[in-house]
Amino acid sequence: MYDVVALGEILIDFTPAGLSEQGNPLFEANPGGAPANVLACLAKLGRKTAFLGKVGADEFGRLLREVLASRGISTHGLVLEEAAQTTLAFVHLHEDGDRSFSFYRSPGADTLLRPEEVDRAQLTASIFHFGSLSLTHEPARSATLAALHWAKERGALISYDPNLRPPLWSSLAEAKRQILAVMDQADIVKISREELEFLTGSDSLAQGSAQLVREYGTSLLLVTLGKDGCFFRLGDLTGLVPGFPVQAVDATGAGDGFLGGMLHEILRRGKALEEWSLEELEASVRFANAIGALVVTRKGGIPAMPSLAEVQSFLAR
For the whole model, what pTM was predicted? Predict the structure, then answer.
């Protein structure tokens, strides 16, 4: 049995790597994709993980399969697609370490995963994680919903990252509709402050989070705030755990690392979310914040994930 199984996109993040001798921008090919980043974090923390998805039967797809395998993430559920290429994302870094994306996905192989290609045998896990990017197109949307149904049937805790990327949707209205359509299926939801406002229309952490929990029954809602930390809501428990001051280099994968850290803590504590105390929740969010802080000091998504020893050393400073 796996600790965490994730379904969704795995892709190549082309990250800025300086200038050539001629003064032209150079890009480094880093493995990424939000669900894969989450698993990479968990695997680095010692958890047993598996990835479900599709890549192109091209050099990038084979590279990504090797990257997952090299980190101990099961690739039995990774399908190679002959009719489409692996999705590519060019990351544009800003001075504060934040980033924007340009996607090459027309279509990307990840959008072509079919329900019958989902390896049900891999869905025996304590936690099933997915994001919204596998909901943007068919047949991947149907494959995601099928896997979600099968995972819930087997008693998995459901983790969801809405992960809004406007360029990948036909419209923002469609993005909001599809993202919210599965919100009531999730036990754990991780969103950014901008995504909270997009989904609720409220710029208040307290009011927006209360609205989502009230309408969709989410057990644990985590609102990441970048360098400012994370706001959480678990039943009647709410709070804001500050982040850590670091020199940001690349924010790619920081939220995924944070979520990986929280899922690790949920597994480590081994009890229902409703039984957590405020102190336990604050300590776990602080642990996850530390991972996010470490990730932004390095380039890339998957390559930036820290080990448990690195996190513990960082927290002990």
Answer: 0.95
